[in-house]
Design a protein that fits this description.
Order of helices and strands: HHHHHHHHHHH
Number of strands: 0
Low-confidence stretches: 1-10, 221-225, 232-243
Largest sheet: none
Helix content: over 70%
Length: 243
């Protein structure tokens, strides 16, 4: 009885689609331009809602809308970055891209771009936090917009399909859509945050190793690694002279 009452209170599917598709489009475009919106979680949540609808086309519509919105956002951001590359004074969009790309990630993206070409764009869309370094590498390499588009189209399609599949898997576990949305959001957060945590852990291990190499435990030296003077306490030379 409670579920039936809740179901009667929900808006009809036509209303959900009329509101949901434009919202999905705007959120993904904005998230592609300014990374303040977790676009992967948005697509997964939309897929969960579409999975629980009776109409046969919502899942296809989510895929098409998300892919097209991601593509427009990428192309728009790349075009704004190109304006900064051509300008002598740069632009705030190009500066923002530089600030969001770590130097080591940018160098790695540039090497992969030289070896694999535009196919790196597909992987950059699937790897969390991998899109911006690769896009910046393309900008610094003066890649034409047409060539960028050829690589970005399959990248956006693969990205939308991946996060939609996460939503479908999460939504299929529960009868109530909100539970599937919660699981889908949790999965996307874990997937997005795991690489950053892994890089931070590796950086900490490297720092500890480099610290151990710089300060070896050498017999006859002080705690900071400098040799003891002959007259310092604990020096075998001074004790031998007074023996």
């Amino acid at each position: 009885m409670v579920s039936e009452a809740v179901g009667r209170q929900l808006p009809p599917e036509s209303t959900q689609q009329a509101v949901g598709y434009p919202s999905l489009f705007l959120l993904v475009v904005v998230g592609a331009l300014v990374p303040v919106v977790p676009t992967g979680a948005v697509v997964s949540s939309a897929a969960v809602v579409a999975l629980h609808q009776t109409a046969p086309l919502p899942l296809l519509m989510v895929f098409l809308v998300a892919s097209f919105a991601a593509f427009l956002g990428d192309v728009g951001l790349y075009g704004l970055g190109q304006r900064g590359i051509r300008s002598k004074n740069g632009s705030r969009w190009l500066a923002a891209l530089r600030d969001r790309a770590a130097p080591d990630r940018l160098e790695q993206a540039q090497r992969r771009l030289e070896v694999h070409g535009v196919t790196v764009l597909v992987l950059s869309r699937l790897v969390p936090a991998g899109r911006i370094p690769v896009m910046l590498a393309c900008l610094l390499g003066r890649m034409p917009l047409r060539r960028f588009i050829r690589g970005d189209v399959p990248a956006c399609l693969a990205w939308a399909a991946t996060y939609q599949l996460i939503g479908i898997l999460g939504g299929s576990l529960f009868d109530e859509p909100w539970k599937g949305v919660a699981v889908a959001v949790a999965l996307t957060v874990v997937i997005s945050g795991a690489p950053a945590l892994w890089r931070r852990a590796r950086r900490g291990v490297r720092n500890r190793r480099s610290g151990a190499v710089e300060c070896p435990d050498v017999p006859g030296s002080t705690t900071d690694g400098s040799p003891r003077s002959p007259g310092s306490p604990g020096s075998s030379g001074s004790s031998g002279q007074h023996a």
